[in-house]
Amino acid sequence: MGGVQPVRKIIHLDMDAFFASVEQRDNPELRGLPLAVGGSAARGVVAAASYEARAFGVHSAMPSVTAKRKCPDLIFVPPRFDVYRQVSQQIRDIFAEYTSLIEPLSLDEAYLDVTENLKRMEIATEIALEIRAKIKAVTGLNASAGISYNKFLAKMASDLNKPNGQAVITPKNGPGFVEALPVKKFHGVGPATAERMKRHGIETGLDLKSKSLAFLQQHFGKSGPYFYGIARGIDERQVRPDRIRKSVGAEDTFVEDIDKFDLAKAELRPLAEKVRRYCDVHDITGKTVTVKIKYSDFTQATRSQTGSGAVSDVDQMLEIAETLLASVFPFKRPVRLLGITLSSLNIEESGQEPQLDLGL
């Protein structure tokens, strides 16, 4: 006898300014001060920023020189990835007391499906409160949470009352919440996609909802059905605890197409640094570097090189990527997107770091 499926209860847990908060926890002299985790050198990049630094407009992935210009008193501390991994495992252990359906997105955030949970608790908001209190007690750190009936809305909800807060989006409120939201704030819609949507008159969830599935598939390809669903507050993706990462990649779509080699080459460094940073966090090494080139007519090319040993640092990855890029120059058309992917991975952890991509 087929019963009605229970409404799913999904929690998105997100640590607040995780790396920076760990540094402020471990060094009381840094508390209350604008802090960036990362290198202060000319080519350095901010890996994380404290809330005090964010008030000046400093954010992760920002070049350190830009961050210093925005906040002259910014304090830089080198990252301690071994410590962040250790704290992340403490947090993961707390999640596991409540459910086995945990999908980590990175060291500092995860989805939890608590529809049926190990504590037999009925109310997901109470579970989230309890988990956040336990994280605070065990690690001394603050976490924020979003609770909803699907992953997309849980992710959106976790940003509503940051830092150190939580929010709920109910099945009744979900569609209305999405309709009022600017699409540029949607998780999964980057600046380039938001700009393309704007050209088609799509600036809010309601605008997106007005477009047919056929229209969205025509203009946004395989993402079309996903956009069609979330515009209606629908997201059927399961919380998947068993995904094994096969590659780590970053890509960027340019505001204006590029046809000069030097300009294209300059765009590779921030991509390589982002991939390398993710690998450092998760103790990942890889042997194969792939460069993806998407042209103005949306055709694309990929070029790969596999070495005998692991790609050890940013400069080595960059050198390979530049050689691969040179192999397709002169470009047959202007370039609208570049990407770098590292594969043939050797993952030291459990192999369950399923961040979808590192798109800038």
Which properties best describe this structure?
360 residues; alpha+beta; 4-stranded antiparallel beta sheet; 12 strands; 22% strand
The amount of beta strand, in percent, is 15-25%
The biggest beta sheet reads:
5 strands, mixed
Shape: globular
Oligomer: single chain
> What portion of residues is helical?
25-40%
H/E element sequence? EHEEHHEHEEHEHEHHHHHEHHEEHE
State Rg.
21 Å
Structural category is alpha+beta
Mean pLDDT: 88
| Distance separating the two termini | 48 Å
> How many individual β-strands?
12
Strand order of the largest sheet: 5-6-1-7-8
Q: Gist?
A:
The chain has 360 residues and is α+β, with helices and mostly antiparallel strands. The protein is 36% helix and 22% strand.
Topology:
Blueprint: E1 10-15, H1 18-26, E2 35-38, E3 46-49, H2 51-54, H3 64-70, E4 75-77, H4 81-96, E5 102-106, E6 109-113, H5 124-139, E7 143-148, H6 151-158, E8 166-168, H7 174-180, H8 191-199, H9 205-209, H10 213-220, H11 224-230, E9 247-258, H12 261-266, H13 268-282, E10 284-295, E11 300-306, H14 314-326, E12 335-347
Parallel strand pairs: 2-4, 7-8
Antiparallel strand pairs: 1-6, 1-7, 2-3, 5-6, 9-12, 10-11, 10-12
Helix pairs in contact: 4-5, 10-11, 13-14
